[in-house]
Amino acid sequence: MIFMHIEKNNSTLPKAASLAMISLAALLSACSKPNEAASSAAGNAAPQEQSASSAQRQITDALGRQVSVPAHPQKVVVLSELDLDSAIALGIVPAGSTYVRGQSNFQPYLAQQTQQVASVGNFGQPSMEAILALQPDLIIAGSMIDTQLLNQLNQIAPTAVSFARGESWKSSFKRVAEILNRQESADKALAAYAQNIQQAKAKLADQQGQTVSVTRWTANGPIYMYKDSFASQVLSDLGLARPAQQQQAGASHSAPISRERYDQIDAGWIIIGSSLPPEQQLNELNKFPEFKRLQAVKNNQYFAVDASMWTGVGGPNAANQAVADVLAHMPKS
Known about the structure:
With 333 residues, the protein is an alpha/beta fold.
């Protein structure tokens, strides 16, 4: 399979942080009266209600920081695809989220679950104004490492970093569950995924060990995902392997590949990540003689998928959807 994806790094974060610094103090001041009113209302609540809403717990985030977070968060803002997917899998619909990287929308596979989720900006460029307007009591900041921006977010609400780049999605999901105090829900979600994998592997018995190329077509040519990417983790769980030429360590992707080197994206199967409808994407690719000469294409063992899911960093929802995509296209025993 071939699958392609381009990821933006956090180099855009300092720009966002600089802009946010100019207005954050004024915004916090402007919102102080509503916050004071909310505090007053909380003060008038019954002692049991006030205690429940103000209870705090200490967690260790992905940066090793001790963070005090609400024991039962009521309004959560998330700043990465994995955080949004994970929160929904844990039964919490965030009040706000950044869009999927490179697009102005949430993940298509979460379209139904995100109808009431407000946008707080593009991936890597969260809007302080939009976050502050939601008045969250908890912010989950994905893999953010920009100290300046984290400090500004922490002025709005307790902010925890949920994962480190390159770690397994399951470990990241467990950390999100710890931040949200939903560990039991996480155990159930992972158990359901494990059962799904077991059933899928039985159906794919004849495909075990088959090589799969994970790619995405870009304006500059195809790229392929490295062996530690989210997609690779799911394929490994299914008993499928990445081809020898795609064994680079890391969760990122290759540079765009020229037509003369399309052999780098060949394998037993090719998964093609795209933002276009699958049929349209495949029709475009079949115009290239170099693509049609690939062995997987000659064998009709290739298909197109949602790039935002396959080339991003997902949680249980994305992982289960990836399994469904493979089952929908690979011959079953």
